[in-house]
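User: Before I run my own analysis I want an independent prediction to cross-check against. Here's the chain; please return only the structure tokens and, at the end, one sentence I can use as a sanity check.
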Amino acid sequence: MLQRLKLFGLYTIYWLAFFVFARLFFLLYSSALSFDIPIKEWFLIFIHGFKLDISATGYIMAIISFVLMFTSYSKSTFIRPVFNIVTFLFLFFSLTVVVSDAELYRHWGYRMDATPLLYILKPKEAMASVEVWLTIILVISILALLIFWLIIYSKIITKALLKIERNGFQSIILFLIITAFMIIPVRGGIGIAPMNTGKVYFSKNNFSNHAAINVVWNVVHSLIYKNNLEKNYEFMNTSEAEKIVSELNYQNGKNSSVLKNNRPNIVIIILESFSSKVVESLEGKWPVAKNLNQLAKEGILFTNFYANADRSDKGIVSILSGYPAQPMASIIKFPKKTQTLPFINQELEKSGYESCFYYGGDIDFANMRSYFINAGFDKIISDKNFESKYNTSKWGVHDEHMFDKLYSDIQTDKQPFFKSIFTLSSHDPFEVPGKTVIEGNDRASKYLNSIHYSDSCLGDFFTKIKKTETWNNTLFILVADHGSGRPGNNPIYAVDKYKIPMLWIGGALKDSAFWVNTYGSQTDIAKTLLNQMGIESGMFSFSKDIFNNSGTNYGYYVYNDGFAFINDSATVVFDNSKNGLLFSNGINTEEILLKGKALLQITAKDYLNR
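Assistant: Structure tokens:
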């Protein structure tokens, strides 16, 4: 038994050492970039990258533990060839990826994933672009490194294999438990956020972040999610779809000016799961967000506004990058794609703004860390910035403490600033501190009670911030990350589930409060805001200016393999799996459906090409 455990430990060290070596190989191969970064950055690359090394090793050791369990009644004469074959296959695959990735990075600028495998379908075309001498060198490198690591294997692992004896039932139980426990290193711990490439992002230098990635883990992970990555939609000729989308987003009119000056402080407050259902001014049937409703009487309320999807990771990208959500994929999961996106904060920083993002939870959740590092936020505040006594919810730090932190920073930070805070207390399971106001143990009641709590924190924040000098030159944009099916138990595609509040308020606004009935979505925030400030917004190609008096006004959202398109004359909800409508209402629904199909087709194509 002890010999098997020793073998397990040595094999773990062997693969951890291999992955550390693979990272060193990448850095040396990329010397033109790596030798320009300080030595401290090199250490941080290895320290942060070790998280993914442990996860990758965890996958391998889960298989090895499985092998040791099923060979509990076998001697080394049987186990040894099994280990030899498995190790050879693992090494050959890993080294092929490591060496190929090092060369590909010089041309692509991102770490290898499943993308190169698409070229296997057309090997003639793929090989036509590769120089023969380089191919020979890469193949020799793979073989040389394979021999090197097999020699190390024979000197360390083979010796341990020779000492293995039969162990019987006890060995089966032990390695069954070990196999089960491999889920911990594989998913990067027992926290909410599973392992993702964003967890190793730590630097404003994107090369350092890329170098920290374990490329073998990255390839396998992208292969697992390859179906989501490649989801495509073809409803019509591409040229026809492009023409429809171009006409949809074309605007040549004037926009109404709502700001006192064009360089106010900007604070975007992203409200977790706030639905129009909870706001009386939006005809909500469950008006528990009393403070938000009162604030709506003091600012600009958008009455026909929609989330682009039903998840936070998609909503955040739609809000801060003006980029449409995909039905079955989430661009935030792929750092190489998010680094190609536009970001509101980047455009503001060109005008002297400092940026900060606040989230009371684990910033590694849903790959958010890589997204915000790619965005170039000056500061990222998360649960790690708070004492443990404030981390009292399943998700992290409750909204009252986050708003206190935001209030404190607004008082002291250099102006002009761009800040965005993402609340979390109204996230499922809806556990909030303090007295229960909405009674009931059902999910709908708990949801409403959590909204009431978050709304009270929002109210307290605005009561305080209005008394400060900073209020007079600050624009606050309040918008939900997505809506909610509760209460009412809406189906996944229902329009009511995606209708959300958006409110602009603050001393930076002109002295007027009004409603905007124009249809819009989260993607429209970017262009609407930047146009008000006189800042170039053309890079937000899927965004439109809601205050502009020309163009097509519409709301658009996606759900699991479907979309909805809404304007003042009609609503259509289309299901791609069914290849038919789930809901339609109004006039000219065929024309509206065609526009929605064109928009989905072009946005899906854009996503795949990033």
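Sanity check: The chain has 22 helices and twelve strands.
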